[in-house]
Amino acid sequence: DAGVIQSPRHEVTEMGQEVTLRCKPISGHDYLFWYRQTMMRGLELLIYFNNNVPIDDSGMPEDRFSAKMPNASFSTLKIQPSEPRDSAVYFCASSLGNTDTQYFGPGTRLTVL
Amino acid sequence: SQQGEEDPQALSIQEGENATMNCSYKTSINNLQWYRQNSGRGLVHLILIRSNEREKHSGRLRVTLDTSKKSSSLLITASRAADTASYFCATDALSFQKLVFGTGTRLLVSP
Predict the structure, then answer these.
(1) Angle in degrees, CA A32, A7, B99, rounded to 5
(2) For the segment A83-94, what is each residue's pLDDT rounded down to a tens digit?
(3) Other Cβ atoms within 10 Å of B61 Cβ, number
């Protein structure tokens, strides 16, 4: 397996624009997680899915953030409209169980100007 | 507040020395995991220790768990420059139903 795949790897956009981050989990993993990492706040769990259903979105910062998982092999994290404070590295991870070993993707480095 | 807190925040050593990082947590757990993150990369799982285990080894890694003190330590023996990375503990607190990552320890190993 190629591991967790994320795209794009880098995204630079202007404030107010819509940003869509994509993730393909490891085949067979039932859980998918979206994290955000910044120097100031560290690694934060935004939302996670089980069998394509959102289970816990308590970490989603505000309504500008939304996540979907239309099928077992694809998930998106959308920010609309984006703001400079959204600049961070966004990681997707997948696992067999909600507290099992997580496998992280390479991340998307987002810069909002 | 964070379930896991690593200590120290940063550690600088010479190649060949041992590196010890500590993790403290607040509530009962099923297991505790350690991850490594190289600069600009995603986290990579290193080792998992269950609540009924006290010590576990994997290569140059040694992890201990003291559930009475709610703490764990990660020891890297005979460190190498390639061990330079951030190290995170993650706990599956029974009340959270998910992994909660700590703040990480930045390890710098100089040649």
Answers:
(1) 25
(2) 999 999 999 999
(3) 16
Tokens of B1: 């507040």
Residues of A in contact with B41 (CB under 8 A): 106-107
Model pLDDT for residues A27-46, shown as the tens digit of each residue: 999 999 999 999 888 899 99
Q: How far apart are CA A48 and CA A13, in angstroms?
A: 25
A71 touches chain B (CB under 8 A): no
Contact B70, B7 (CB under 8 A): no
Q: In the numeric block, which tokens belong to residue B29? A: 């757990």
Q: Are A104 and B42 within 8 A, CB to CB?
A: yes
pLDDT at B3: 63
Query: Smallest Cα–Cα separation from B26: which of B84, B79, B105, B92?
Result: B92
Residues 30-69 of A with CB under 8 A from B: 42-43, 45, 48, 56
* End-to-end alpha carbon distance in chain B: 37
- Tokens, residue B67: 């559930």
